Amino acid sequence: MYQKSNKKINFENISEDEKLILGNRIKHSIQSYKSRKQKYTYYLLFAAASVVLIFSVVTYSSLNENHSTIEKFAESVKNQKNKNEVELILNGDKNIKVKESDSIISYSYLGKKVSIGASETIEQEITNKNEITFNTLLVPYGKRKEIILSDGTKVWLNSGSKLIFPAYFSENKREVYLEGEAIFEVAHNAEKPFFVKASQYNVEVLGTVFNISNYKDDNAIRTVLKSGSVKINYENSSLFSRTENIKIAPGTLAVYHKNDKEITTEEVHVDKYFSWREGVFIFKNDSLASIMKKLSRYYDLEIIINDKNLAKHTFSGYLDVKENINQIMTTIITAENSSFKYEITTDRKLIIN
């Protein structure tokens, strides 16, 4: 057994060589201590990093596992492009071109029969009600379309939008996936809540009227509630709690900022968010840049404003988008009391100077 020695060292009787050896031993002991302490610190940091890494992997895996069937299907067809005509894609990738005159697409209760306008009925095969058959409605820029889903829910799709939905809602919930903008008038069914899915975001309702705008080139997803109640589930930026939810009341605009993963709300006059369904755009102190962005989608034009100060000018009023783009521009110039000029090129660009 090691015993501590009580013997004191007389440093005055130590030779210079012995002092040198003793000094080297002390120096070596200090370096050994520092090395052990440093290794211990590395072990702690490595262990902490491992915990964070494992947590991140588990969180990422759980988020992936929580992706619904419709979200996985939407990911598999994300490269589908809007063409020049409204297109309905049925089971088995059967593409149906929908004419402008065919105002409403309507599904039967079981989703097997699809009525396009008043003149055409198409049947699709649904062999097993327990297996989900997804259909897709593509609305290009410059078009709009109304569809009635198999549960009776009405959806108005705005220009440049895509809606993925089951032909028949067989599960204990109803889920659709949206890219672009749509107004929903959801058929009430307390036993089957209705979900509108989007990337990092979904809205849950029982029966209500609301608008969602989720264009890929926008930096935010906007939800406006007209009647009823909705709950918005969204991803946040927190490391430990990846999802949050918020309920909004009628007359509320909720804005989810995609980059910051934060949500803000404000009370608004809802009419301006629903009027496009009737072919009217309502603006109240909106910048010319934001107005032109909406018009570019509706008229399928690339709009360029060369004057940055002009782009910030605000406008309030009504635009009847059943008129052609030249009539619309005349209305804006008159209301702005401005003398700015514009031209429309052969490659569908509207340039404002």
Automatic annotation (TrEMBL):
The keyword Plastid does not apply. The chain crosses the membrane at residues 40-63. Keywords: Membrane, Transmembrane, Transmembrane helix. One of its GO terms (molecular function) is sigma factor antagonist activity. Residues 281-351 form the Protein FecR C-terminal domain. The keyword DNA damage does not apply. InterPro entries: FecR, FecR_C, Ferrdict_sens_TM. This is Iron dicitrate transport regulator FecR. It comes from Polaribacter filamentus.
